Batch of 2 targets.
Target 1
Amino acid sequence: MAVRLDEMDRKILAELQEDASQSLDEIARKVGSSKTPVWNRIRRMREAGVITRQTAVLDPEALGLEACFFVLIRTSEHEAEWQKKFLAALRARPEVLEAHRLAGDIDYILKVRVKNARAYDTFYQALISEVRIYNVTALLSMEEIKSTTMLPV
Amino acid sequence: MAVRLDEMDRKILAELQEDASQSLDEIARKVGSSKTPVWNRIRRMREAGVITRQTAVLDPEALGLEACFFVLIRTSEHEAEWQKKFLAALRARPEVLEAHRLAGDIDYILKVRVKNARAYDTFYQALISEVRIYNVTALLSMEEIKSTTMLPV
DNA sequence: CCTGAAAACAGACCCCC
DNA sequence: GGGGGTCTGTTTTCAGG
């Protein structure tokens, strides 16, 4: 999965992360190249899977999604069948923006975006009724200090 | 900050989140409208701040960023001066993808993307040498079950 | 691997409904 | 507020160095 990227590739990626709506000419100018080579590099990185897709970033507050929770989950179940069901449940729920299986005594962490605390409770009740969970801690975000999709390239 | 959005707006947002490189005609066809109204709605939502920006989503693994940590931070310091310095430090570090101030006994949570455990340690040492922190727990992600930028609209 | 031209295409803005 | 057309600029392709 590792792809060789040179300095020029990285500059292009930085520009595309910053603003993917820029024209090729603009990107080419900024990275000190010209249209066609930039275009070829972008195509190559798309094909290599470095660039996954292009998306519009929305403001959660403007959409009324004003509550953000990080959910720490411990479970007593470690069978394949249970895990499969749990993962499917997480993937199916659009309010779950992130889900990771962890090393250590906490088994999973979720990032959940909802309208308010009440909506979180609805989500939580639905989740625990679907799959057996041993222990849950919800951390409520008071302030989003930083939230970026931009990876260091 | 709350904006009135109708069903058509939400459909357009869903399409733009799914794939922002689609043409207006394509989006118009999918949502059952035509070019101009779709374009006007997009412009309105951009101006209202619902659509923040447009970005290329990159694959962290392909970039060699194979380690992801969630960092739980407790601090004994709650002065404005300390907090200002801490926030600035987080914002300045590109490996910190998310940072939230929390309610409850854990004060902050970070999401940190790095090459490996060693790179995390470098980050960690740099951070604690910059600002005084009382207690840190790092949760290592073993598996990214889900990671999406798509908000439920 | 780059330059430059050319063709296909989509975005931005018009007027009319 | 939606529909259709048009101009302009951008993407994509390709020939040639």
Target 2
Amino acid sequence: MDLDAVRTFVAAADAGQFQEAAVALSITQQAVSKRVAALEKDLGARLFTRTARGARLTVDGQAFLPHARELLRVAERADASVRPGRRALRVDVVNRRIAPAVLLQDFYRRHPEIELDVVTLDADVDGATAAVEAGTVDATFHGVTVAARHLPGAITTARVIDEPHQLLVGPGHPFANARAVMPAQLAGHRIWMPGLAPRTEVAAYYAEFAAVFGLTIDVVGPVFGNEALLAEIADSSALATLVGESSRYLWPDSYDLRRIPVRAPAPVYPLSLIWRRDNPHPALGTLRRYLDTRRVAAPDTGVWLPNWG
Amino acid sequence: MDLDAVRTFVAAADAGQFQEAAVALSITQQAVSKRVAALEKDLGARLFTRTARGARLTVDGQAFLPHARELLRVAERADASVRPGRRALRVDVVNRRIAPAVLLQDFYRRHPEIELDVVTLDADVDGATAAVEAGTVDATFHGVTVAARHLPGAITTARVIDEPHQLLVGPGHPFANARAVMPAQLAGHRIWMPGLAPRTEVAAYYAEFAAVFGLTIDVVGPVFGNEALLAEIADSSALATLVGESSRYLWPDSYDLRRIPVRAPAPVYPLSLIWRRDNPHPALGTLRRYLDTRRVAAPDTGVWLPNWG
DNA sequence: TAGTGTCACAACGAAAAGTTGTGACTCGCC
DNA sequence: GGCGAGTCACAACTTTTCGTTGTGACACTA
């Protein structure tokens, strides 16, 4: 199926005749006739009944028309998603399971009119910041703060998320039935995070947390992906891992995994939005205002923040 | 933008390299390279970074990928809407504003998995029945009953809708503030239905109704479409028209049109679904069951039915 | 019946897209 | 370091597709 043929079909259906559609498309009537005939052959159905006064839709044509329009609409949006200068707002969420991704989904629900592309750059703060500076993405979420880093001039940040982290354990784990745990209680327990890449911001966060409270963060072991990790934890009475409060992990009902809040202090992961001050994309302001309204600042006491937070 | 190029892009993105995508598409690696290059040129953005180990998506490619998949999905559905043998369920509703169309929309809400095409054949009972018999549509709604007409052998009907009709009047009309009116009260009043085609089932219904209760059905006057009709009625203190209870007419807030129930007796328009007994389309049975559950039979007394009802 | 509009078919030339052949480059291994 | 095996890109050639021009069949209208 050829999109030009579909466009021609829609033009002919709107005009009611091939001649006028040809003028609208700046081609000859014969070309329209050919394109429509090719489309009909391709679909295996007649779309128009030709008369001496023009062309009227057949039932098949009538059924096909809305799909054709939808197809052109989607093609338009696909085009707009990358066309320089008019593309959709593009935000890097680092990981599709964590808070920024969840928040962006809600943002999209509230602003369905805003074309939004969620991407994962797989880059560290510097790489993501470079992408923001280069304009390949409009914004990214990272744990950086203005105070903690030297950022290029045009780059701006704003703290937008303070997410408490929870312990994720299986039914056999010692804390499986606890209403909450304190970081100090975790001393000696294994917190398993296979595949946690070294030298990343996330690794630094957990390393600092572990050092302060005497935990063991265990990053060894084969990395079979998140599903395997969840399966292991569900089965184990010793393994646990840390996850963001609003992160979304899906597991089969049979796993019986539990999220146990961590308190006194609650480890909070501070995330900032990073964007370019002179980015003219109109939807960027809307996103920032939305994030402002959703901002829930962590309380001053009872929380633990990394020293860069 | 070429759909084949988009398909190729998706295949390459899934495979992670052009070579494998080429095998999957039964073309050469060079052809894949060409198609992707053409798509990139067309979009004005680079979609892959080429490496010695394959091709990885750029940020643009990553943003484009879901749109590309959606585009192929929509193309698939467009194709399915007319492809003989596997096309969507196709139902003629006669008119998109009346009860069958409203009901079908609800049916689609409850069964979003069923591909449904709503068409308007612009044919009378015989034409629509012929279309059903020929298989160009799977079903149609008309006022016919088995008893009243001789139908071709394979054609089946079932009464599925009994819709009471209401008076639609502007704020200046004598019945504007009535809670209900009786047909007898309408004697002498003008019921305006410009454009009501003569010799149709609908015309016969209104003609019989008018004859029985002494009304004047006025079909003269220029036909400027439904919007113009509504505007006239809103402005007039003499004009009124009849509309189905669940029909949907939209008008600006400023019009202040009112729907006045007609009672004692309530004029009911009986509609049947017409389909071919040997139509194998699986969704047809689902539609019939749905219509059965929604069926609200008119009470035996207090209603007026045409003699073919 | 002549005139004017419709769309379709045929022939031709131009453009596009596929294939084959080849080269540049990267990675891993000896 | 050099070599083999993999990657993708470029060039040349062939085939196919697509658009144009020219023309004809057909229907409605005056």
